[in-house]
Every structure is written in C-alpha cells, then in structure tokens.
Amino acid sequence: MPTERARKAEKGSDNFSRNRVDPREKLSDPFSAAHLPGDPDVWIFIIAELLMFGAFFVTYVVYRAAEIDLFNASQLTLDRGLGFLNTVFLVTSSWAVAQAVTSARRNEPRTVPRCLAMAIALAAAFVVVKVFEYSAKFDAGITLSTNTFYMFYFSLTMIHLLHVIGGMIILTVLWSSARRGAYNPSNTKGLETGASYWHMVDLLWIFLFSLLYLLR
C-alpha cells in the first residue's frame, strides 16, 4: 500500500497537471505576451521617420536660438486656436483608431469600421483647417521665403500634412476591409500596422504644435 507521503506526492502531481498551462495555448492567446503591434517592417519605417523629424526639430531649435526675436514675433502671427483644434482632431482620431483595434480583438466587427470612419472624418477636418491656415498666410503675403521661421513652419507642417493624407488613404483601405468583416481576434495584424503609423502621425503633430505654436 502507498505510504502517506506517496499519496501526498501523487495528489500534488495531479494538482500541478491540472493547473499547468499548455505553452501552445499561451502562444495562441494574443493578450498573453507583450509584442510590437502590426508588421515589424512598419516599425523600421516609424523609427526612421521619427529620427528624421527629430533631426528637423533639433535644427529648428538651433536656428530659433540664433534668431529668437524673429521667431517669437513670427510665432505670434499663428492662430493658436486653430493649432489646438487640429491637435484635438488628431488626438481624438488616434483614440478612434485605438478603439478600432480593441474592437477587433474583442470580436466586435461592427464597431471597427465605425471607429475607422470617425478617425478618417477627423483627419479630413485636420486637413481642412490646415488648408485654411495656409490660405490665410498666403493671402497676407506670407510664404516659405518670408523668413527663417516661416521656412520651418511651411516645410515641417507640409511634410506632416503629406503624412496625414497618406494615413487617410491607409485608414480608408482598412475601413473598406473592416466593412467586409476582415478583422477579428485572430486577424488584427493589418489593422495594428495601420494604427501604428497613424499614432506616429499624431505624435509628430503634438511635437510640431508645441514647437511652432507654443515654444517661447
């Protein structure tokens, strides 16, 4: 007959077997381990873009320090209200994209295209406001060659605007796929890839708004 110690060891072994998690199950659970969202290749692109804009930002700060009075005076001609409004548009748009990814992971296919449509509409509003700002400056005779500040202002914001338009195209493709029910807990990679790019666009604008509109 088994001893008391043997029975306890057998019981403990049974409990361990019941509580042990199959490593294959853990790997199949998208929430079980931290990972970079989306395609790894998009992160190479994002890092390269951030480094490029980082170099632009450092150059801007250096030139600003050399002509601080000119930069401060020119900065006062910008409309902070419109700049803040565009910040709200992009931050809210980024939130909507994050909600789309969350909805796909929760297997809520109807919510995904709605969130993406909201993000696209807010991005379009950003473009409209930016075009209005440019038009007001051009009507006042202010161009990229007016002074050093406006050379940076138009160059940086126009490059960013191209990123916004590119992001809108990506979001529209994702929206079209989402309407067909393409995204679910087992298929979020494409959605996460587009979302990662869009969050980068949002982050870059926050830096641009701070440097161009707020920094004194």
Report on this structure:
The chain has 216 residues and is mainly α. The chain has one domain: Four Helix Bundle (Hemerythrin (Met), subunit A). About 9% of the residues have low confidence.
Q: If you average the pLDDT, what whole number results?
A: 87
The CATH C-level name is: Mainly Alpha
Give the helices and strands as they follow along the chain: HHHHHHHH
CATH architecture: Up-down Bundle
- Tell me the Rg in angstroms: 25 Å
Secondary structure: number of strands:
0
Class derived from helix and strand content: mainly alpha
The CATH topology corresponds to Four Helix Bundle (Hemerythrin (Met), subunit A)
Molecular shape? elongated
Largest sheet: none
Write down the domain tally. Answer: 1
| Helix content, binned percent | over 70%
Q: Report the end-to-end length measured between terminal Cα atoms.
A: 85 Å
Please report the number of helical segments: 8
Q: Strand share of the residues?
A: under 5%
Low-pLDDT ranges? 15-33
Name of the CATH homologous superfamily: Cytochrome c oxidase, subunit III, four-helix bundle
Which key features would you list for this structure?
79% helix, Four Helix Bundle (Hemerythrin (Met), subunit A), 216 residues, 8 helices, mainly alpha
Write the layout of secondary structure elements.
Layout lengths: L3 H16 L3 H6 L11 H27 L1 H8 L4 H26 L5 H29 L8 H32 L9 H26 L2
Précis, in short:
With 216 residues, this protein is mostly helical. The protein is built from 8 helices and no strands.
